[in-house]
Specification:
Strand order of the largest sheet: 5-4-3-6-7-1-2-8
Order of helices and strands: EEHEEEHEEEHHH
Distance between the termini: 19 Å
Largest sheet: 8 strands, mixed
Structural class: alpha+beta
Number of strands: 8
Shape: globular
Oligomer: single chain
Radius of gyration: 17 Å
C-alpha cells in the first residue's frame, strides 16, 4: 500500500470540555512512535505505562508489560490499526490514573511534499498534569483552583505553578517540538 497521510483526532475520554488534538502523520508510523507523538501532542511526560486497545486486544511492549497478555506493537504500523475513515481505537496512558484517549481516523490524505510530518493542525484545552488522579482527580483539582480559600489551593499552586491554565493549548510549541523530531 502506498504511503498516505492519516489525519487523526486524539481526544481524552471522560472529560468536558473536550481535550483534543488533530494530527497529520504518515500512515506507516509505528505504534511506539505514535505513542511518542501522542505524548508530545497531549503534553504528557511519558512517565507511565501505556497500551493501545482495539477489538479487545491489547498492544504494547511485552518486555515492559510482562504481566499482561500484550501483542508486541514494536513493528506494527498505524495503517494496521486504522484503514478507513471514521475507524478508531483506544490509547491508554498511566494504568493507575487510566487516561483513555480515542484515536479517530478523520481523513486519508495524499502526502504533501512541502510538509514535515507529523504536524499538529488543531487542538483545544491543556492536558491534565501527571499523577492528578485521572479524570475525577483532575475535575477536583480544577474546582480547587477556582477557590483561593480552599485548604489545598496553595499546595496545588505550588505543584502546578501559578501560570497553569486548563484552557491553554500551544499549537506552535507542539509543532516546534515536532520539527526537531525524526518520525
Amino acid at each position: 500500500m502506498a504511503q498516505n497521510i492519516f489525519q487523526i483526532q486524539i481526544s481524552l475520554n471522560g472529560f468536558t470540555p473536550k481535550i483534543w488534538r488533530r494530527i497529520q502523520l504518515k500512515s506507516d508510523t509505528l505504534l511506539p512512535d505514535l505513542h511518542d507523538i501522542i505524548q508530545l501532542t497531549m503534553g504528557w511526560d511519558d512517565s507511565h505505562l501505556h497500551q493501545f486497545i482495539k477489538n479487545k486486544e491489547f498492544y504494547g511492549d511485552p518486555s515492559v508489560d510482562e504481566d499482561f497478555d500484550t501483542i508486541d506493537y514494536r513493528k506494527i504500523k498505524l495503517s494496521a490499526m486504522l484503514n478507513k475513515e471514521k475507524e478508531k481505537f483506544i490509547y491508554e496512558y498511566d494504568f493507575g490514573d487510566s487516561w483513555e484517549h480515542t484515536i479517530l481516523l478523520e481523513k486519508i490524505l495524499p502526502v504533501d511534499p512541502n510538509t514535515k510530518y507529523p504536524v499538529c493542525i488543531a487542538g483545544e484545552m491543556n492536558c491534565p498534569p501527571e499523577d492528578c488522579g485521572g479524570v475525577w482527580g483532575y475535575s477536583e483539582l480544577l474546582e480547587i483552583l477556582k477557590d483561593p480559600k480552599h485548604e489545598e489551593y496553595e499546595d496545588y499552586i505550588e505543584w502546578l505553578g501559578d501560570d497553569f491554565d486548563p484552557k491553554e493549548f500551544d499549537l506552535e510549541e507542539v509543532n516546534k517540538i515536532f520539527m526537531e523530531c525524526n518520525y
